[in-house]
Amino acid sequence: MSTLRPPGLGPIIGHTTDRSCRLWMQAAALDDPRKVVADEDRRTIGVLVVMQKGEHVIPAPVRPVFYFRLQREFDRTGTFILGFEAGLGGTTPVFALEPDTTYRVRLASLALDDAEDNELRASDQELAATLPNPQVWAAQIERLPDVACEAVFRTCSPRSTAAPAFSFMLGSCRYPGLMWKIKESDRIFGPMFTELSTEKLGARPSLVVMCGDQIYADTFHRAVPVGLADTHAEFTDRYQQAFGSFNMRRLLRHVPTYMCLDDHEIEDNWAQDRLHKPGKKILFNLAIGAYMSYQWSHSPRNYGKRLYYSFVSSGYPFFALDCRTQRYMDDVPDTVDDNHMLGRPSLDPDEPSQLDVLCEWLRDQQADRGNVPKFIISASVFAPNPVFAIHGASVAHLEKTDAWPAFPQTRRALLQTIVDSKIQNVVFLSGDVHSASVARLDFQGDGSEDLRAYSLVSSAFYWPFPFADGDPAEFVHDSRDPRTPDTFEIRPGVTMDYRAWNFCNDDNFARVTADRASHTLTMELIGRDGNPIATKGPYKKPVDMTSQLELAPW
């Protein structure tokens, strides 16, 4: 009989609802010194054991134990939806989860000799018939170290209305670090873990949003063409380094984490037009295959195989955009009007574009939930814009931003939906630029003046080159300032302006808290030492970087 092995990577707590939780893991590297069966010819099976429900530790004889597949073609990774799925081949019935309840689980893997490459052809029932009764692992799994195999999560509240207080953490851009600096890249996830047990403004963080550049496949992207991942093994290695570091791995085992794609999961400033260049299609397929295995697979996955997704937590709705695999910089010269960030317009009503889906989602959320804040996760910053890309800038400068200014048609269609349908309290969540900030969007014309919308940026988790990115002077602070005019015309007579403040290019993450009683959204920037970030004001006195934002009542 094979022995249980702790995960090689994970567990990771993914999308969590009031009745289910996605739990991800990767099998440990195989280490048969005899090489009786080649590693690639072994089959790996995931094992999940429910150890505790609330305060009740479940005795070994009655612990639910589940088998699930760890697919070879996905780097021996797999996701099990506890509360929704039965064990492989029906070996264990669905274990019902209850709302607002804490669960402790353990995950492990089995390595089986299987010389025939029939991973896809073997049915669940056929595969389950070759395995021992899953209950044999209920006690044995206790022999594995908890730091390597244990995850603790809490299910959501089944709320039909938004919770009185709701908090989450936001961040992006974790540069891997070089040589003796590798540990520095992991440092900030320690304070994030501590924050999970800290109640502020009536709430503890319910989830973490990582909005892009969880890995840097192109480590030296702006210097020399060295360090670019262009093989399957190199992409896998990037994820092993990032998700396997001590603090990040501990964090991912204790809180639902929602991730989205940005360019450094593929290549700096990626757009789909590069697929026409030699070698780029292979690079893209390798990168997206790795992204789907390590990040997308534990997301909600509620739009088929599309990488964008939506979810609701404690009555607060989120939509995570895919700003990369549907980004097109078309080749009509001297214009950005043919650029599309969220996919080209669809002519088939049965195949809506991502932009169509997003706009419909906004209308539905406003109709169903009223003025509850609606969070749009956009790896690219919605506002503020760089100074070099203000209104009237050249096409070359607009496209240099690698962000929303280069896609005015996409931005215009989205803002038209917000204005025409009176969508209140839209909040964009972004990273990418290695400079945190807050921006308030202001609308004028056609009765839009009362709309509230914001753009919150938290970046970077770790970026060791402050001279290269993140200078606050690089961004527009007030779009109405005649020195940096950047008013955006939605349509004749209807415009959007913005004012941005609290810029910070220190390593940071943001804690965002919605408070229904005061109708406010609070964004607190926290540094890698775990303390709130403050900047020096007049007479070198510290100035708090916490922002309290007024929202329309909900």
Question: Could you explain the architecture of this structure?
Answer:
It is a single chain. This protein is α+β, with helices and mostly antiparallel strands and 554 residues long. 16% of the residues lie in helices and 27% in strands. It contains ten helices and 26 strands. The chain has helices at residues 124-129, 137-140, 146-149, 189-195, 232-243, 246-252, 280-294, 354-369, 395-400, 408-420; strands spanning 9-16, 21-26, 42-53, 56-57, 65-70, 77-82, 102-113, 150-154, 165-171, 205-210, 257-259, 309-313, 316-320, 328-329, 339-340, 374-377, 426-430, 436-444, 453-457, 488-491, 494-504, 508-515, 520-527, 534-536, 542-544, 547-550. It has an eight-stranded mixed β-sheet. Strands 11-10-9-22-23-26 form a six-stranded mixed β-sheet. Strands 3, 4, 5, 7 and 8 form a five-stranded antiparallel β-sheet that branches. The longest helix is centred in the middle third of the chain and has 16 residues, at 354-369. The protein is globular and about 70 Å long. The model is unreliable at 33-38 (pLDDT under 50).
Structural class: alpha+beta
Q: Which bin fits the share of residues in helices?
A: 10-25%
Looking at how many chains there are and whether they match, the oligomeric state comes to single chain
Strand line-up across the major sheet: 12-13-16-17-19-18-21-20
Low-confidence stretches: 33-38
The value of Rg in angstroms is: 24 Å
